[in-house]
Give the backbone structure.
Amino acid sequence: MYLERLQAALPEVRSQIERACERSGRSDAGSIELVGVTKGHPVEALRAASEVGLAVIGESRVQEAADKLELAGDLGLSWHLVGHLQRNKVKMALKLFSLIHSVDSVRLAQAVAKESTKLNRRSPVLVQVNASGEESKSGFEVEEGLAAVREVGELEGVRVVGLMSMAPHSSDEGLLRSVFRRTRELYERCSDELEKFEPRYLSMGMTNDYEIAIEEGSNLVRLGTALFGGREP
Ligand SMILES: *Cc1c(COP(=O)(O)O)cnc(C)c1O
């Protein structure tokens, strides 16, 4: 079931990505990273992803990812953590994920840095920005973003390779654009002003809003529903 769904959905998503690039005068559709978010879906979704060549998987919870990885075995996928990370799960997260999108506090960054140093690693992370200012969302306010990225970037054990943000669930296109634009502006400021910032990923865009996110400069979209269908909440 997942395989058929993905075989139909993936070309559709890829063509939407290309069209969004064209609309905004971008010629780099091939450089937009697509992360398939499998949270709430069973291991079959991962097998299907592997089969169609969707190489990067996003999960929101460390334990769910660990359980699935154990069931699925090595499918040759890379795993990204896109959801909130608790400090007591950092050690486990570093074993599972090649990129953490959700560094949303300095204390969490310090915990990631400390565990990474023990492993002799400098772990790539994204700093999460709460560009919509919603109370329910984690991440640094845009106004404090530059200082936060500077502070996180100074830690031994981590490399800040970009920013992540989530827009509100809304059909107000102007609102979505402004959230993405504020995040992109911060990304550019970090790139210009911070020596320790390594701009690689601007992670913005989910099923509801990825075309707009791409038009506003995203180079990594995180898609669950568009690829795998609805999920248990
Ligand atoms: C669930 C989730 C997604 C995927 O959401 P869809 O709307 O199903 O595409 C992307 N990013 C994060 C951080 C998520 O938690």
Remarks:
- The mean pLDDT is 96.
- The beta strands are 33-37, 56-59, 78-81, 99-103, 123-129, 158-165, 197-204, 220-223.
- The pocket of pyridoxal-5'-phosphate is lined by residues 37, 39, 60, 82-83, 166, 206-208, 222-226 (CB under 6 Å).
- The two ends are 20 Å apart (CA to CA).
